[in-house]
Amino acid sequence: MKHPLKSESENQEPAAGCCRANINRRLVVGGIVGIAASPALAQGDSQNADAASAPPQPGDYLVRASGDDQTTPLTPEDIVPNSAPLQAWPADSATQTVRSDNWQNLLVLTRWDPAVLSPEGQKYAAGGVVAQSAICTHEGCEVTSWIPENFLMECPCHLSRFDPRQNGAVMQGPATRKLPALALKLDGDRIVVAAGLDGRVGG
């Protein structure tokens, strides 16, 4: 049986839409108010806007992509083991800017006993948590379905399936490339980015 991805539990709302146009882009920086805005303010806004659309960077922490709390850094305990992925955005640790202006930055997080992860998956994991791109490598739709019987993620557009335990490997086409994976590490109890995505995002 297929289920839409839930952020943490069966009580949460499913992710909206299957394609990039349906991803909820959250604007982190507003426009400059007033004609007389200072050059320094304009420069600061520009830098924050750039940070909001930049790809995940080493040192970024991760936050929920939906729900009431989209600012608190995620920890392994926030992710239910062996369950539907939690959708997340990376956030700049220096400015606390959530990188949600770029649809390609949407991630899916799952948590496992490290023993069930592939060798490559173990290298990318932190506290049993692995992160992959939420964007299908076939035609760029958002991967929003979860098949609990075999722990696979499925793209609802053309039914490609991916295994988060095997570093996002393709288990069923038409996609031919795995989901790009993000190397993680722990900073205290926070999940942070250790290295950027290991492949091209989308189709």
Automatic annotation (TrEMBL):
Region feature Disordered, mapped onto this chain: 46-78
InterPro entries: Rieske_2Fe-2S, Rieske_2Fe-2S_sf, Rieske_Fe-S_prot, Rieske_Fe-S_prot_C
Highest taxon of the lineage: Bacteria
Domain Rieske positions: 127-193
GO CC list: membrane
Keyword Iron-sulfur: yes
Cofactor: [2Fe-2S] cluster
Keywords: 2Fe-2S, Disulfide bond, Iron, Iron-sulfur, Metal-binding
A GO MF label: 2 iron, 2 sulfur cluster binding
PROSITE patterns named among the record's database cross-references: RIESKE (PS51296)
UniProt xrefs under PANTHER family: CYTOCHROME B-C1 COMPLEX SUBUNIT RIESKE, MITOCHONDRIAL
Record protein name field: Rieske (2Fe-2S) region
